């Protein structure tokens, strides 16, 4: 009987110890052993919608084929290694970029309405029937501030996100004048539009110069070099996000491109075409927005997910590695060296002959840009890595970059990347001859320039310790 009682007491001790280690309280470890808390499962990288996984590897970076022009842009070939990453299977389209600018527009509108709403006090349903429905979410809950919020208020707040000014996105916005709920709402919304004296044919158009995306990024490389990470290394950006539609007129003298100026970005006929007229800074702002969008979604789940990896522009090495599609020394994304398949159809959207932008519709050529996914994808599942539109990369342009950059994930520092006005663009475009479509060909443009033949696509890092990829089907 005593033996049975002793066994029962021992079991009780083990059970009580196990329960004591489920939370943050109590001693660390389990049964005196060094056992980390949390799930023992390996991290599975979730592949973002519309992206493909690019496995890491080594390749010969540079012009591996004949260099007919023998220009300094084609640096000496160099073997480098890049890590795994996800990459957009197509260039960012007009439809995808419109999600970005509309979200920025709505955020600004809601902020203006929330300031005007004050303490709220709208309709009982809170469905946008009055301006009071658009008050800050914290004003409408009626809940007492958390201890953390009270602490921040006692310290005078902190620079950056203010929890007390969290917007209520559940209340629908109305941009149709006939649906404005009250006069104050109309006053706020109309302040976002061009004034009457600047309108053409009295058309109500948003004053897009006011629609700016604000964000900040940390110059990690400089901070680590200085051994002093603090707010001084945070770089604040305020970027007007609307693409420059005038590029269709400015880029081509003595050419009639006005229909594209009027229609290319907004008309539904072009929604699956690559966005153009976007500067390097605007492309980076889009990357930050996409990161925030994913981060907010992860935080909104009942069981919070791992922090979202940052979306960004690819480095020059990453872009070239992905463009080759797993084929060493590939002249073009499909291998090469020809620009047509065995049926005589072109393998990319480019300028086939002098003065001829569209040689034969049956051969798959387009006068200007083409819808994405119209040409065969490469070995990694990427479309239009040659032709259609050239693409921004994160890398600053330098003739000697290949020589002094590392052979492991070659890249220049974030500060150099941001401050250098010349940025590398890759891939060739619809207006270029076939030679400029080579995977090793390099070109550049000023980061504040917008062109009718330059777009972009984004990538997301994959942690080195990640397991197999899991596709996001949403």
Task: Give helix and strand order, one letter per element, not per position.
Answer: HEEEEEHHHHEHEHHHEHEHHEEEEE
- The count of β-strands is 14
Q: What average pLDDT do the residues reach?
A: 83
Count of helical stretches: 12
Q: What is the makeup of the main sheet?
A: 4 strands, antiparallel
- The end-to-end span amounts to 61 Å
CATH class category name of the largest domain: Alpha Beta
| Strand order in the largest sheet | 2-5-13-8
Low-confidence stretches: 1-23
CATH topology annotation of the largest domain = paralog of FGE (formylglycine-generating enzyme)
Description:
The chain has about 475 residues and is an alpha+beta fold. The chain folds into two domains: about 40-95 and about 215-474, Alpha-Beta Complex (paralog of FGE (formylglycine-generating enzyme)); about 95-205, no CATH class. Helix content is about 25%, strand content about 10%. The chain is built from twelve helices and 14 strands. It has helices spanning about 1-20, 95-115, 135-140, 145-155, 185-190, 220-225, 245-250, 260-265, 280-300, 315-325, 400-405, 415-420, and strands at about 45, 50-55, 55-60, 80, 85-90, 210-220, 235-240, 310, 390-395, 420-425, 445, 455, 460, 470. Strands 2-5-13-8 form a four-stranded antiparallel sheet. The protein is globular and about 70 Å long. Residues about 1-25 have low confidence and may be disordered. It comes from Epilithonimonas mollis. One of its GO terms (molecular function) is formylglycine-generating oxidase activity. Pfam families: FGE-sulfatase.
């Amino acid at each position: 009987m005593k033996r049975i009682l002793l066994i029962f007491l021992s079991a009780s001790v083990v059970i009580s110890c196990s329960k004591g280690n489920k939370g943050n309280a109590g001693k660390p470890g389990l049964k005196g052993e060094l056992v980390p808390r949390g799930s023992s499962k390996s991290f599975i990288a979730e592949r973002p919608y519309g992206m493909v996984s690019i496995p890491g590897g080594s390749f010969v970076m540079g012009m591996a084929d004949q260099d007919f022009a023998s220009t300094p842009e084609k640096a000496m070939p160099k073997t480098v290694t890049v890590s795994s990453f996800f990459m957009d299977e197509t260039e960012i389209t007009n439809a995808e970029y419109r999600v970005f600018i509309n979200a920025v527009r709505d955020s600004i509108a809601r902020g203006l309405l929330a300031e005007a709403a004050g303490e709220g006090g709208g309709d009982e349903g809170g469905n946008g029937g009055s301006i009071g429905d658009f008050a800050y979410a914290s004003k409408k809950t009626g809940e007492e501030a958390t201890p953390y919020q009270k602490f921040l208020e006692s310290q005078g707040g902190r620079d950056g996100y203010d929890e007390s000014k969290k917007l209520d996105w559940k209340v629908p916005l109305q941009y149709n004048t006939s649906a404005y709920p009250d006069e104050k709402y109309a006053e706020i919304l109309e302040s976002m539009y061009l004034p009457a004296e600047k309108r053409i044919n009295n058309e109500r158009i948003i004053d897009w110069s006011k629609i700016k995306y604000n964000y900040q990024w940390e110059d990690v490389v400089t901070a680590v070099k200085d051994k002093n990470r603090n707010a001084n290394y945070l770089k604040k950006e305020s970027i007007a996000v609307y693409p420059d539609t005038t590029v269709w007129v400015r880029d081509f003298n003595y050419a009639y491109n006005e229909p594209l100026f009027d229609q290319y970005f907004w008309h539904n006929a072009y929604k699956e075409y690559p966005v153009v007229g976007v500067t390097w800074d605007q492309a980076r702002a889009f990357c930050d927005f996409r990161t925030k969008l994913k981060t907010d979604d992860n935080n909104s789940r009942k069981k919070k997910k791992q922090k979202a990896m940052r979306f960004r522009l690819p480095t020059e090495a990453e872009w070239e590695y992905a463009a080759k599609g797993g084929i060493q020394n590939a002249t073009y994304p499909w291998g090469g060296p020809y620009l047509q398949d065995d049926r005589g159809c072109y393998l990319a959207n480019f300028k086939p002959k002098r003065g001829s932008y569209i040689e034969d519709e049956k051969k798959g050529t387009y006068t200007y840009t083409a819808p994405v996914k119209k040409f065969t994808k490469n070995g990694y599942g990427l479309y239009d890595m040659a032709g259609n539109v050239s693409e921004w990369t994160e890398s600053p342009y330098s003739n000697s970059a290949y020589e002094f950059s590392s052979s492991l994930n070659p890249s220049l520092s974030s500060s150099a990347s941001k401050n250098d006005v010349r940025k590398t663009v890759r891939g060739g475009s619809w207006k270029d001859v076939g030679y400029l479509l080579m995977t090793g060909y390099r070109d550049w443009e000023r980061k504040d320039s917008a062109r009718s033949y330059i777009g972009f696509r984004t990538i997301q890092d994959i942690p080195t310790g990640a397991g197999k990829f899991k596709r996001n089907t949403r």
